[in-house]
Amino acid sequence: MKVLLVRGNPRKNGFTQYLVNLFAAGLLEAGARVTDVDLAAEEYSLKPCLGCYHCWLIKPGQCVHHDPMENLLPVILEADALVCATPVYYFAMSSCLKNFFERTFPLAAQGLETSKMGILRNRLRSPAKWENKKFISIAVGALRAREAYEPLNQTFRLIADTLDMELGGQITRAESHLLPFKLSKPITLKRVEAAFLKAGREAGASGVLSAKTIADAELALSPDEQYFRTYANIFWETAVSMDATNTNSAKLQQRVSSDPDILMREMARSINPKATARLRAVLQFDFPDCQRHYRFTVDKGHCELKFEPTSSPDLRVTCATDIWAALFMRKLNVAAALRQGVIALEGDKSLFTRLDRYFPLPSV
Ligand SMILES: Cc1cc2nc3c(=O)[nH]c(=O)nc-3n(C[C@H](O)[C@H](O)[C@H](O)COP(=O)(O)O)c2cc1C
Questions:
Q1: 292-299/108-114 β-pairing
Q2: Is the pLDDT score of 239 beyond 70?
Q3: I want to staple 26 with a disulfide (CB 3.0 to 4.6 A). Which of 197, 242, 288, 318 is the partner?
């Protein structure tokens, strides 16, 4: 498959780039011949369409501008699949991607015909080149509500229809600002990442994404609006508190993954009501390296978290924050941690051995 991947994200190191890099890796794994175009890069800087119809009336098929689009038009025609990725800006695609589509106007011509969706569209100059061409869109936005993405997805469907391309799939990755919270959603985020890689493989093999892959790539990252709001706020508070690296999604991810407040909030949230149905206990977690204390009051299936110490808990756990993060993520074995003496326990140690049952890894 010859695939033209068009990246419409102006921001480097953002969430669109992070996900589309996985997709691009999948394309290559599938053996696709990929032209990877970053519209934000200097080399692909495109002048705006002037709407002058030079490409229809003066020199048919040729734009009045002489810029990188001259080389891209033949690549579009020759591609078996066109993949477009964009961050969502005001319910729409980024301006550079929109401009890219406007600049495809020389490929169309005057003279109307009916599209597959039954809409009158401009004739295509080389209709055979569009036959069987697949179109895939990837939209990455911060908002949670699906309706907020519908105008953009509908625009993509109309573009595919007007250029006579077959829709190979649309991925709507909402809640982008929750993507750095690996600690709180380790299972879900692994599935999302794997799905973007798989989507790339499917696109590279056939130009068509499976419903399962799309569903995994779009997995919800928050169970409800309140949770979403909390984490979106934590995202911004963290970003504001950082230095200039706050625009780098990987750096932000590192930062939130080592924040013990987030870790302990997630642990409290993940309580297993069945396993703790008969349990009443106060658990204290002390992290001397950052001088933080967390008190869990477990009462028959519920857990109340207080960010303060208590003098007589049923169990006190003392360790470094990164050790607790590794234990929580099941990257460090409890027995090994106790053997190495990197964790200290006081009180009812049997409670400690059951913690992974009381507080399983959160999956959403
Ligand atoms: C100008 C602007 C407008 C935005 N409008 C929307 C929007 O309408 N819907 C949405 O879900 N997110 C919106 N966002 C948030 C971005 O889509 C979100 O931050 C996304 O992760 C940006 O992609 P990036 O991380 O690759 O830069 C907007 C962001 C900017 C800068």
A1: unpaired
A2: yes
A3: 197
Flag whether pLDDT at 177 surpasses 80.
yes
Say what angle helices 321-328 and 260-269 make with each other, to 10 degrees. 30
- Mutate which of 13, 146, 176 for ligand 1 pocket (most atoms within 8 A of beta carbon): 176
Give yes or no for a contact between 319 and 338, defined as CB atoms under 8 angstroms apart: no
Average pLDDT over the chain, rounded to an integer: 94
Task: From the CA of 174, give the closest atom in ligand 1.
Answer: 11
Q: Residue 249's pLDDT is what?
A: 84
The CATH number of whichever domain residue 295 belongs to comes to: 3.30.1050.10
The verdict on 83 and 180 lying in the same domain is: yes
Amino acid 257 reads S
The number of beta carbons lying within 10 Å of the beta carbon of residue 307 is 12
The verdict on the CB of residue 90 being under 6 Å from ligand 1 is yes
Residue nearest to atom 15 of ligand 1 (CA): 142
**Is residue 143 lining ligand 1, measured as CB closer than 6 Å?**
yes
Residue 132: inside a domain, yes or no? yes
CATH at residue 92? 3.40.50.360
Residue 13 lies in a domain: yes
- Rounded Cα distance between 362 and 120, Å, is 50
